[in-house]
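Appendix B. Chain record.
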Amino acid sequence: MDLCLSSTQQPGRLREGLGTPGGWLEAEKETLQKDGIGGPPGDSNKIEPSLHNLQTFVPTNYASYTQEHYVYAGKEIVIQESIESYGAVVWPGATALCQYLEKHTVELNLQDAKILEIGAGPGLVSIVASILGAQVTATDLPDVLGNLQYNLLKNTLKCTAHLPEVKELVWGEDLEQNFPKSTYYDYVLASDVVYDHYFLDKLLTTMVYLCQPGTVLLWANKFRFSTDYEFLGKFKQTFETTLLAEFPESSVKLFKGILKWD
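Structure tokens predicted for this chain:
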């Protein structure tokens, strides 16, 4: 089994200094230079664009973190989580979606596919998609992007064909400005983005906007509340919907959606 982490990461605990934003940034920059990603010190022009996000996305200073271990595609993935934020925890829909991606990699033709994940949280789905060969853009709200970037880099650096990109996405806001229609995605992924919150209409608007002719939306969700089924009803009105899989042990359903065109 491969451990898809840079050599300086010690599974099971955080390295000293990562609890502070400055410590995390300096440690990552040092690692990137040591691993040869950024070229000679100071040669920032050769650093991949997504690595520049290190200067922007700083992990929230939660009081406590845990290191959770997952195995997909023969890789051990270590995710830094915190129960202090919904966006810093791996939910059941994410593991269900990862299982499906792993099992159907060839069928989905994930190699070099362009994928955007909505509500990436701590990043497990985006990491698995990257390991399986996709070009991934992981999105979420600003307060969780630091932890997301940390997990993505630690689990994909030097062991994936395409380094994932991290972008801020507030559902329903500034979509044309931040995600121009000239950018096409083969897949839009979403897991456990539907629960009892006030932004379900904006979520559906965002899903519709990101899908173009040919885009496949894969949505995995644990169904907990009546509002989840209400959203599913609206989803079916907007997307040609297929139930791909059910996971009774976790009450997760996985749907495939193709946007209906007038």
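Further analysis of this model is presented in Appendix C.
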